[in-house]
Write a structure and sequence with these properties.
N-(1-d-carboxylethyl)-l-norvaline Dehydrogenase, domain 2, Rossmann fold, 3 domains, six-stranded parallel β-sheet, 19 helices, 13% strand
């Protein structure tokens, strides 16, 4: 949605193919089926300008197209964690059947190394007469900031077949034209081979996931030795070799990319006989981290949450999205529910997507103060900005108890404690859990 809409904003005619009838109906009616700030306005403007259309007819969309982007899901396969590329291959076969001239077939989906070669094989088998090239153009869009990330990216990666110089030049020229507005901004456009581009996306996401996991472990260490993780993170982040991003303690990383891509990279390494042990450990530590957060809340309650009312602020894996995929709230709330707690939850955008994956007993509230109403304990799971400005006095007026577990470090410990709360957060000495003091 974001890539197609932003290409249209660049002045390109874009036809988005959606095979889900409900989603297609929503798109044609101007209803965006995902939550992404600013996307609805951008879609409306480009539809009105005639540059952006939605349909389910692949042949009509592909007819006369210079490039066709494959942007279907590649979820983790059960059992081995490898990326499931079946949707990619099915889409490619459909494209090959209806393409009507030279076409660059581009993977936007995050795919394992070697996928581009397999795509070429499938196309040759399906349409031996088709003139085509395969390219890899991985996306690096952060949910909640995706439009800005597309319009002003750190870099654009384009992988083509290095062993086919003539085809590489044709494919590169088409993709250069598509990204021409970014050349004017002097955005680095990095051309690589297919395998390199495929590996870059996994490497980037896995490194960032490893950075999150690193600061989470340092946060635990801070609690043991009386250090402040905020000061540690800020100080090491000022080192230009490290950088300040992704150094915020949390209940663990989630979403559609990091969990899936770290598992896939470990599978790629195992299959290649070159295990990536740092990433294997990152996956294991992150999965344990989420379980530990549930146990931390239970310990904060005195070891038993049975019969307690727990208010929960935030459900999605991060703010500014409705994405619940692999969100830390899922295992934490499941543990609290099994412990007999009554859960009242609020999320500004994610409650609809949360219902199918959270315990059926969860009560969904109208706002943050409603979630806090009658709560013995309040738990912060997602750092939405609107939660940061909540006055402690207003929380106290709604809550039955005086315990707050801030798993995102959004509040100042002194201010919360001065309001009469028993308060814990992550890695800060003035908010260390009582059972660890």
């Amino acid at each position: 949605m974001v890539s197609g809409t932003c290409f249209a904003e660049f002045g390109t005619d874009v036809a988005i193919v959606e095979t889900n009838p409900d989603r297609l109906t929503a798109l044609r009616e101007g209803r965006i089926p995902i939550y992404e700030p600013g996307l609805d306005r951008l879609v409306e403007e480009n539809v009105e300008a005639g540059r952006l259309t939605f349909g389910d007819d692949i042949a009509a969309a592909v007819k006369g197209a210079d490039a066709v982007f494959v942007a279907v899901g590649t979820p983790s396969r059960r059992g081995d964690g490898q990326a499931d590329t079946s949707y990619v291959y099915a889409a490619v076969e459909q494209i090959a059947r209806v393409a009507d001239g030279y076409t660059v077939i581009v993977t936007k989906s995050t795919v394992p190394v070697g996928t581009g070669r397999e795509i070429a094989r499938i196309i040759r088998k399906t349409r031996p007469d088709l003139d085509f090239d395969v390219a890899s153009n991985p996306e690096f869009l952060r949910e909640g900031n995706a439009i800005q990330d597309f319009m002003r990216p750190d870099r654009v990666i384009i992988g083509t077949d290095q062993y086919k110089p003539e085809g590489t030049e044709r494919a590169q020229n088409i993709l250069r034209k598509l990204y021409r507005p970014l050349y004017l901004l002097e955005t680095p456009i990095v051309f690589t081979g297919l395998e390199t581009a495929e590996l870059i996306k996994y490497s980037a996401n896995s490194f960032l996931a490893m950075k999150i996991t690193f600061i989470n472990e340092i946060s635990d260490l801070c609690e043991k030795v009386g250090a402040n993780v905020n000061d540690v993170a800020r100080s090491i982040g000022l080192d230009g070799r490290i950088g300040k991003k992704f150094l915020h303690p949390s209940p663990g990383f989630g979403g559609s990319c990091f969990p899936k891509d770290t598992r896939a990279l470990t599978a790629i390494g195992r299959n290649a006989g070159s295990p990536v042990r740092l990433i294997e450990t990152t996956v294991a530590v992150n999965e344990q981290r989420m379980k530990d957060m549930g146990e931390r809340v239970i310990a904060f309650a005195g070891g038993d949450v049975s019969g307690l009312t727990i208010g929960v602020l935030g459900l999605t894996f991060k703010p500014e999205t409705d994405d619940m995929r692999e969100a830390a709230s899922i295992p934490v709330l499941d543990m609290l529910d099994k412990g007999g707690a009554k859960i009242r939850a609020f999320d500004p955008a994610g409650m609809t997507t949360a219902r199918p994956v959270l315990p059926k007993s969860v009560t969904y509230c109208t706002d943050a103060l409603d979630a806090a109403k009658g709560a013995d304990i309040l738990v912060v799971m997602t750092e939405w900005n609107e939660f940061r400005s909540l006055a402690p006095e207003k929380l106290a007026a709604e809550m039955k108890g005086r315990k707050i577990a801030d798993l995102r470090n959004i509040w100042d410990p002194k201010a919360i404690k001065d309001a009469g709360f028993d308060y814990i957060s992550l890695g800060r000495p003035d908010a260390v859990q009582p059972h660890q003091a």
